[in-house]
């Protein structure tokens, strides 16, 4: 083996929404007379503004996980298919696999209409992949049944922003973490979920002796341990807390009346609503001291610059939109918005949760933040795509999609780059739906996800290190993802699989007399040869919209580095901060106060299910662990799913280090180890989310962690309440 050439490729970490830049080092070598490219290592990119060279435990092991995935043979390397459910899948050609799916999709669309098929995609996909899937579903097939695991991640933050500020646009930048005097973290274990951003917070606190950190969380997480004030609230009581804080602001006269009067609407009604929310009431319901609520309100209002960081603790709830709305109201009422170091800042869980929203890759959206409910937006996209008619009927959202699949209304589903049999709530119901489907297509880089078990067709996709495109992180920053390695085996890029399939389907639908588009014969809606072609089309959809990126291209990202949208044509750089003029993208230009009364969690405890179960992330694992689960060192933090109970409860149940417990919800039962952990409050339990059915007994839709969780969802965002389920716990 001879080293011939060393290459360094700048790309982006594929894990969390911090979106750190990385530099991949590869070597081109001669091996047995063949040119091979080997992955040598991954380092943080010192020039990337999200991380300036730093990486967390997951990012710093990207080279090792990429190699472990290949050598551990967990990668999908060739198409697999079956035409008979009694058989198992076996290797086939790309032509056979795609033609089989085209035949079935065309048959179903012809016989049962476009809404009989669906796509369930992922915040792990690149923006270009997302755009391609969205256009395939909406423009060619004519269905809005394209939803994504981003629905489990950010949709309540989206509805909160739209309801109050008028647009799905996080107004802040990571730089604001260093500029804030007070940081209010609600429902986010930032230390685990966004580690490099947390490093910035640690550095800011080290430099500013007057810095205040308030953490609202039912658990004493590593993040909460650093707080000056930890409000250890009862799960799901955030709206009660935020309303009481606003009540205090009103009582104390700490409102910014100039901002309220000039730049907002609806405050009077809001004030009448929160008048009922006394600190004493909130202290009782939330389970915290009245004095602590007063302290939190004081620091929030009186600090020169207050920044909120929030994540799944607010979003994954049946009241997720209300929680977001109530928190943003605190910022509007105190004028803590539109200034450096101040504002509400949602943290995206996934690497490209925002990119999917930008291209409208959800069942309730159209490209560039257009709405299905707006006839003008529909007409704009019909004209842009050159199609006769787009459906305005909202498609099925994540939970609804698998409901309809189980009922038989949706008959075929294409799952790309996500693992719903593991990650959706009530996951055994999802397994039943997949079993019932007439066709399940799984497009993935890995063979290990639980959903692969149900696939009739497995389409091997490229993954991090091999792909080209863009992603958008939590601060609206678009970064390039670049390929440093050749595709594994016969794997193809996600966008390229969509294009190949779509061109075949165009012909199949036309031959069946289903001309869904007005394009001329012989032309295609999918004329792209590279991801850059797709980016340029996506870019044009944003012209004049709130996320206008007509000033951005791959060439500019190459020269200027990652940029924050909007960046309209002619701009020399992206936009760090939104709403600095306090002019909001609503009809009146004013931000809105929308009062929401406190509602308890969907599934409250009772005599049969008396414990409150919370689920969450570990420091060193990522989602279903397709990638992180291949390295032994990632299990040194937590080796398996262990139920955490308060030590008083642990003793009361007579448990010890050899004990196992049976955790039973209204949907399923799982048996696992248990540990005393006083970060968890009495009568509550916490469980990491990374272990699916395969850990608990392998195939056949057995219960994983999410078999326990409820699929009840927020009526506005349709995001399910993964953060709270009522369970019964007994010694096994
Ligand atoms: Fe990757 Fe997030 Fe870690 Fe950065 S903080 S290295 S984006 S996992």
Automatic annotation (TrEMBL):
<keyword id="KW-0479">Metal-binding</keyword>
<comment type="similarity">
    <text>Belongs to the prokaryotic molybdopterin-containing oxidoreductase family. NasA/NapA/NarB subfamily.</text>
</comment>
<keyword id="KW-0004">4Fe-4S</keyword>
<protein>
    <submittedName>
        <fullName>Molybdopterin-dependent oxidoreductase</fullName>
    </submittedName>
</protein>
<keyword id="KW-0500">Molybdenum</keyword>
<feature type="domain" description="4Fe-4S Mo/W bis-MGD-type">
    <location>
        <begin position="6"/>
        <end position="70"/>
    </location>
</feature>
<keyword id="KW-0411">Iron-sulfur</keyword>
<keyword id="KW-0408">Iron</keyword>
<keyword id="KW-0560">Oxidoreductase</keyword>
<keyword id="KW-0534">Nitrate assimilation</keyword>
């Amino acid at each position: 083996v001879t080293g011939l050439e060393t290459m360094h490729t700048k790309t982006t970490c594929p894990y969390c929404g911090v979106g750190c830049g990385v530099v991949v080092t590869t070597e081109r070598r001669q091996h047995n007379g063949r040119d091979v490219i080997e992955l040598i290592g991954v380092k943080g990119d010192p020039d990337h503004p999200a991380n300036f060279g730093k990486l967390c435990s997951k990012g710093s092991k990207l080279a090792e996980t990429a190699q472990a995935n290949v050598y551990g043979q967990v990668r999908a390397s060739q198409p697999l298919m079956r035409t008979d459910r009694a058989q198992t899948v076996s290797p086939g050609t790309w032509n056979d696999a795609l033609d089989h799916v085209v035949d079935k999709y065309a048959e179903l669309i012809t016989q049962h209409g476009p809404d009989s098929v669906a796509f369930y995609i992922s915040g792990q996909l690149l923006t270009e992949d997302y755009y391609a899937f969205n256009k395939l579903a909406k423009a060619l097939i004519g269905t809005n049944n394209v939803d994504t695991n981003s629905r489990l991640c950010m949709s309540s933050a989206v509805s909160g922003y739209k309801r109050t500020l008028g647009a799905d646009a996080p107004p802040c930048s990571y730089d604001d973490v260093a500029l804030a005097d007070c940081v209010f973290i609600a429902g986010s274990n930032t230390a685990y979920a966004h580690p490099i951003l947390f490093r910035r917070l640690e550095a800011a606190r080290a430099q500013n002796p007057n810095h205040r950190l308030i953490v609202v969380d039912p658990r004493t997480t590593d993040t909460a341990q650093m707080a000056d004030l930890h409000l250890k609230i009862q799960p799901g009581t955030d709206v009660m807390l935020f309303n009481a804080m606003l009540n205090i602001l009103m009582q104390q006269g700490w409102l910014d009346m100039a901002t309220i009067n000039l730049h907002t609407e609806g405050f009077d009604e809001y004030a009448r609503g929160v008048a009922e929310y006394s600190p004493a009431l909130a202290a009782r319901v939330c389970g915290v001291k009245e004095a602590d609520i007063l302290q939190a309100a004081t620091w929030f209002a009186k600090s020169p610059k207050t920044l909120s960081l929030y994540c799944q603790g607010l979003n994954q709830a049946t009241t997720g939109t209300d929680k977001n709305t109530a928190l943003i109201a605190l910022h509007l009422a105190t004028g803590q918005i539109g200034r450096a170091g101040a504002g509400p800042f949602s943290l995206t869980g996934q690497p490209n949760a925002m990119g999917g929203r930008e291209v409208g890759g959800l069942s309730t959206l159209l490209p560039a933040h257009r709405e299905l409910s707006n006839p003008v937006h529909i007409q704009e996209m019909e004209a842009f795509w050159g199609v006769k008619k787009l459906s305005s009927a909202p498609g099925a959202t994540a939970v609804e999609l698998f409901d309809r699949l189980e009922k038989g209304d949706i008959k075929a589903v294409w799952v790309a780059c996500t693992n719903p049999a593991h990650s959706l709530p009530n996951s055994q119901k999802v397994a039943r739906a997949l079993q019932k489907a007439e066709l399940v297509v799984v497009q993935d880089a890995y063979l290990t996800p639980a959903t692969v078990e149900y696939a009739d067709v497995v389409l091997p996709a490229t993954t991090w290190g091999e792909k080209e495109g863009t992603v958008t992180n939590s601060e609206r920053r678009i970064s390039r993802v670049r390929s440093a390695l050749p595709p594994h085996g016969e794997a193809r890029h996600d966008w390229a699989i969509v294009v190949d399939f779509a061109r075949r389907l165009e012909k199949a639908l036309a031959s069946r007399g289903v001309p869904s588009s007005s394009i001329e014969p012989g032309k295609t809606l999918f004329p792209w040869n590279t991801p850059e072609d797709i980016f340029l089309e996506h870019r044009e959809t944003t012209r004049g919209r709130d996320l206008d990126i007509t000033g951005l291209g791959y060439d500019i990202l190459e020269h200027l580095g990652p940029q924050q949208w909007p960046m309209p044509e002619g701009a020399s750089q992206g936009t760090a901060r939104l709403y600095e003029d306090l002019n909001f993208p609503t009809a009146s230009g004013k931000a809105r106060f929308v009062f929401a009364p406190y509602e308890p969690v969907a599934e409250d405890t009772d005599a049969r299910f008396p414990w409150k179960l919370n689920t969450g992330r570990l420091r060193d694992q990522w989602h279903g662990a397709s990638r992180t689960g291949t390295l032994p060192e990632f299990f040194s933090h937590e080796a398996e799913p262990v139920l955490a109970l308060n030590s008083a409860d642990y003793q009361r149940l007579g448990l010890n280090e050899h004990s196992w417990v049976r955790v039973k919800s209204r949907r399923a039962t799982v048996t696992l180890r248990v540990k005393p952990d006083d970060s968890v409050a009495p009568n509550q339990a916490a469980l990491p989310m990374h272990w699916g059915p395969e850990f608990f007994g392998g195939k056949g839709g057995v219960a994983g962690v999410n078999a326990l969780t409820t699929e009840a969802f927020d009526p506005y965002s349709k995001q399910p309440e993964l953060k709270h389920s009522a369970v019964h716990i007994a010694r096994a």
